Amino acid sequence: MVFLGADIGVVNPNHCIEEWIDDRVNIMFYTRFISIEIMADSFIIKNTQYSHNFLKKWANWEFIEKALPVITNKTTFDYFYRSHGVDNGVLQLVVLEAVLPNAKVEYANCYEQFNTAYDLNKASSYYGFVLCVRTVLGSEYFWPGKIKIYRKGLGWARDGGHLTYDDWSEHDFMIHDWKGDDITKLAYWHKPASLLKEWKSPFLSMLNISECGKGYSGWNWRIEKKKSVEEIKKQLVESEKLFQDLFLKPHRFNPLIDSARIDKCYPKCDK
Predict the structure, then answer these.
(1) 151 and 213 Cβ atoms separated by less than 8 Å
(2) Whether residue 205 has pLDDT greater than 80
(3) Which InterPro entries match (predicted)?
(4) From edge to edge, which strands make up the β-sheet containing 157-159?
(5) Cβ contacts of residue 253 below 8 Å, gap of 6+?
(6) d(CA 47, CA 3)
């Protein structure tokens, strides 16, 4: 089964989702380009007991989150990026526990960051929490029989407006962050003013489903939005540096040196 959020759509019909199905695992995620989060808004999942258990554990966080602090100031741009991430934030913890069940101390360190991310007055942020989880996971992206996480830029979808303003290439399949009920009038609402610029959809008009299935009929692209792979790569490199400087580097957090460890488990840290 493929889960897609409502703001994800196909931009290039020359790909099939089967390209990303790996029979060696039960669940497939991909890494978001901006935040290095494990993306919650789209995943591929098998109908297995492992998958059922994973989804139930993820869903049960709804009841845990209700007991956590609530942010009341939702008017600033900072709120969007320094909140707890709702389902996306929780997913990082669920994946960490699923693939590294014995990393209890490290999990506790990251969970502390997760709670801190609720407080807009703290220097730490949601990104500090994400960096904590990804540091513990290390360079591993594949756990046989469990989960696979596609590296940044290599999944079946990627953020569009944030990175390339929905320019696309033959390498792309789906684009994330199409919001609104008319793609010809779409505007982004969660960017700082310094990043805003005119946005144009990859399409000239809303798609006509009745035309689908007849070659490229119905795919009314703006010709200028399709770029070469090298052109998109250049845009992604520039965006990667921008968002690293803007969001990730100011909130660096290494659970090995930035959080107490011994007090959580000594003298039974291996239990």
Answers:
(1) no
(2) yes
(3) DUF273, Nucleotide-diphossugar_trans
(4) 8-10, 174-176, 157-159
(5) 113, 124, 128, 129, 131, 132, 135, 259
(6) 13
**104-116 helix and 126-137 helix, angle to the nearest 10 degrees:** 160
pLDDT band (50, 70, 90) for residue 271: low
C-alpha distance from residue 166 to each of 27, 151, 202 (Å)? 27, 20, 6
Tell me the per-residue pLDDT of 174-197, one tens digit each, with 9 for 90 and over.
999 877 666 666 555 444 555 555
Q: In whole angstroms, what is the distance from residue 13 CA to residue 219 CA?
A: 9
Are residues 28 and 153 in contact, defined by beta-carbon separation less than 8 angstroms?
no
**Tokens standing for 64?**
């845990």
Distance CA 151, CA 206 (A): 31
pTM for the predicted model, two decimal places: 0.86
Half-sphere exposure of 148 (CA within 13 A, CB side): 16
Quickly state the pLDDT bin for 54 (edges 50, 70, 90): very high
Q: How far is CA 60 from the centre of its chain?
A: 20
Task: Confirm if 71 and 120 have CB atoms less than 8 A apart.
Answer: yes
Q: Could you tell me which of 112, 113, 114, 118 has the C-alpha nearest to residue 69?
A: 118
The pair of structure tokens assigned to 198 is 């005119």
Q: In what order do the strands lie in the sheet with 147-150?
A: 2-4, 42-45, 27-30, 147-150, 142-143
